[in-house]
Design brief:
GO molecular function: ATP binding; ATP hydrolysis activity; branched-chain amino acid transmembrane transporter activity
Structural class: alpha/beta
Pfam family, one: ABC_tran
InterPro entries: AAA+_ATPase, ABC_branched_ATPase_LivF/BraG, ABC_transporter-like_ATP-bd, ABC_transporter-like_CS, BCAA_Transport_ATP-bd_LivF, P-loop_NTPase
Strand order of the largest sheet: 6-7-8-3-9-10
Largest sheet: 6 strands, mixed
Radius of gyration: 17 Å
Shape: globular
Number of helices: 10
Keywords: Amino-acid transport, ATP-binding, Nucleotide-binding, Transport
Strand content: 25-35%
Distance between the termini: 33 Å
Protein name: ABC transporter ATP-binding protein
Bound molecules: adenosine-5'-triphosphate
Helix content: 25-40%
């Protein structure tokens, strides 16, 4: 695992109107790591990713990316700097074909040859997408849409990939396939990954480090393997009796 922090949150407070969703979050994601963020419903996992990727602006605190203060920097600017966010619920374009969805993902890339190369890399990762190149995104199955959302996020060859619940609504076989690919991206391309998951055991199974979030606050920060062994974590998030 890496040493230098690629991402840091320092005392981050994020609100939805009066609702205080993140209450002074401190987090570090080192370059080259997979970091899992786990926690129950409404803990603030999605809000954390939105705050990192510039979709939401924190009311207080700082977000640092690649050594720079990026607090309040808009999402499209961060995307241009290699931070790619796969949001909750996938958000692919239903009226565009698979290929067109991938092309939209590459909007910050201008070199046609490079775009085509990345499309082919996406097809190599997800052969199902190649078979469905001209199919409309909206007619794909849930698992296929998740693959498309990830392939689209990879079109910028991200340095930091933010993944929000990639396993949601997928059959066990698809979940395995997605997690294998996440691990492969990290090992073979060195992509740093911040992974939000309800499926805590799978997430901790591939992560280096884990954070447990509870009502907007970090409760635990440990090596992922340690968290997976922790009795309280097992009872609360891993479904142990
Ligand atoms: P889940 O696993 O259920 O998706 P989460 O950990 O991702 O939960 P968030 O979606 O980040 O949690 O929500 C954190 C808090 O912010 C919750 O109390 C939620 O009700 C609130 N919240 C989230 N989105 C909005 C919104 N658009 N407007 C108002 N409140 C919101």
């Amino acid at each position: 695992t890496g040493t230098a922090p690629l991402l840091e949150l320092r005392g981050v407070h994020t609100y939805y109107g009066q609702i205080h969703a993140l209450k002074g979050l401190d987090m570090t994601v080192k370059e080259g790591e997979i970091v899992a963020l786990i926690g129950g419903n409404g803990a603030g996992k999605t809000t954390t990713l939105r705050t990192v990727s510039g979709m939401m602006k924190p009311r207080a605190g700082q977000v640092l990316y690649a050594g720079q203060d990026v607090t309040g920097v808009p999402a499209h600017t961060l995307l241009g700097r290699g931070m790619s966010h796969v949001p909750e619920g996938r958000r692919i374009f239903p009226q565009l074909s698979v290929r067109e969805n991938l092309e939209v993902g590459a909007y910050s890339v201008t070199d046609r040859g490079l775009i085509e190369q990345r499309i082919q890399e996406g097809f190599a990762l997800f052969p199902r997408l190649k078979e469905r190149e001209n199919q409309l995104g909206g007619t794909m199955s849930g698992g296929e849409q998740q693959m498309l959302a990830i392939a689209r996020a990879l079109m910028v060859n991200p340095r930091l990939l933010l993944l929000d619940e990639p396993s949601m609504g997928l059959s066990p076989l698809f979940v395995e396939a997605i997690f294998d690919i996440v691990q492969m991206l990290n090992r073979e391309r060195g992509t740093t990954i911040l992974l939000v998951e309800q499926n805590a055991s799978m997430a901790l199974g591939i992560a280096h480090h884990g954070y447990v979030l509870q009502t907007g606050e970090i409760r635990l920060s440990r090596a992922a393997a340690e968290l997976a062994r922790d009795e309280t974590v097992r009872k609360a998030y891993l479904g142990d009796e």
